[in-house]
Structures are given as C-alpha cells and as structure tokens.
Amino acid sequence: MAAQNQNFFTRLFARKQQDEVVVQPELDESKIATNAQTLPHTLLALTPEQEAAFPEEVKVDLQKRVAKLPPINVGEFNFVPFEAGQLQGGYYVKVFIRNGRDVSEEIGLEQVPLHLVDASGEKVASGLFRVQNFGTLKFGEARFWSFAWRADQIKKPDADFSRFTVEFE
Q: Which pTM value belongs to this model?
C-alpha cells in the first residue's frame, strides 16, 4: 500500500514531458536566493503578567493593532507608539516594542532612555526607564508597553499630540 501511495504522490506532483514522467528533484531550501528585507507581520507576545491582567477584549484589540502595523525591517528593533497624552501632570505613551533583529537573538530590556516627541518635532519629555518583568522578545514578536513621564521630566507643558513619536538611545 505504501508503494502504491508513493507512486500516486509521485505522479500527482510530477510534470509530464512528452509521455515521460519527470519527477522534480528534492529542493534544498538553503540554496534558495532570498531578498526578503522585511517581516510583513509581527506577533503579539504578552508577558505572563499582562496575560493575567488584561481582559480578553483588550488582548483582541492589541492583536488587531499589531496586525495593522507596517512591516519591520529585518535587522531592526523598534518602538511603534500608538497613543499618547497627559497623565497626572506628566505624559504617557503606549507603544509596541518589536524585534526584527536576528532569528537567533532574543531581546530583553532593563533600562530604556526614551524621549517623547510631539507634532512640532520637539522632545517634550525625556527619561530613563527601568523596565521590570519585560521578559524576552523573540524575533518577529511585538510587546505592548506603556511609559509615563513625571511632571519634573516634562520639557514642554503644552505638547501637541496630534502626531507624535518616541526616540530611544
């Protein structure tokens, strides 16, 4: 029976050339030339604490947001901000942290020097954040994170958040 199945699949996936069946040679994927420079999608990777704390609708919303992000360049590690505003006299930003650096590299964060930049292009807040319970981020993953600057870290009290970004060093 196995020989019969093999014969069937050989015929199924073979090309016919002038009444002669030609079986495609086995493909060595390592020899395929690639020019992929971007990852079209990253996957949402929540920490265990986030998994436990976030209601299901928040998780679904975050997954939808990650799915809509533009591709990340291979070799790139970036922060993609999607919400910013005022919080108790300071500012906050919500971001996705994405890892496209290297397939074999997992990234962990301990300290992040981060600047919030408003629509005018000015750095409106700066600070060094100690990131706790971040875990590691594998290649192709995105993690949701929030950062908040205290009032004494604000450089511009009337920031315009109609457009904004973050810069890290």
A: 0.76
